[in-house]
Amino acid sequence: MDERYNDRFGPVSAETARKLELSRIETENMESRDLRCPICGYRIGTVYTDRKGHVSIKCRKCKFDGVINLAYFRRQKTGRAGRVHAR
Ligand SMILES: [Zn+2]
C-alpha cells in the first residue's frame, strides 16, 4: 500500500482499504494531468481521464476558492515533462 495518511486516525477498515486499492489499480492505465489553480498555477491535485464536470477547488497559495469546469481548464498531460518547472 502506497497511501499515506496520518495514523492518528487509526487503521482504515478492510472495506476502505479495498476501495483504496481498487482505486489505485484502476488509475494505473489511465492518463493523468495536474489540476492547477487557474489564477496562480499552483498544483491542487491530479485528475484522471475519466474525471469530468465541475469541481470545487481551494488554492492554498493564492486563496482562490471557487468552482471550475474541468473542460475549460485542460492542461497538458503530466509525464510530458520539460515545460513546467517546479518551484
Ligand atoms: Zn492559486
Properties at a glance:
alpha+beta; two-stranded antiparallel ribbon; binds zinc ion
Summarize the structure.
The protein has one helix at residues 14-27, and strands at residues 32-36, 43-48, 54-58, 65-69.
Give a structural overview.
It is a single chain. This protein has a domain at 32-76. It contains one helix and four strands. It has one helix at 14-27; strands at 32-36, 43-48, 54-58, 65-69. The strands form two sheets. The protein has a two-stranded antiparallel sheet with strand order 1-2. A hairpin with a 6-residue loop joins strand 3 (54-58) and strand 4 (65-69). The two termini are 29 Å apart. 2% of the residues are buried. The model has no long low-confidence stretch (mean pLDDT 84). The site of zinc ion has 8 residues, from loops.
Q: Helix amount, in percent? A: 10-25%
Strand order of the largest sheet: 1-2
Rounded to an integer in angstroms, the radius of gyration calculated over CA atoms is: 15 Å
Strand content: 15-25%
State the major sheet. 2 strands, antiparallel
Count of β-strands: 4
Which structural class should the secondary elements be placed in? Answer: alpha+beta
Name the bound molecules: zinc ion
What is the H-and-E element order? Answer: HEEEE
Determine the N-to-C terminus distance: 29 Å
- Low-confidence residue ranges: none
Overall average residue pLDDT: 84
Number of helices: 1
Globular, elongated, flat, extended or rod-shaped: what is the shape? globular
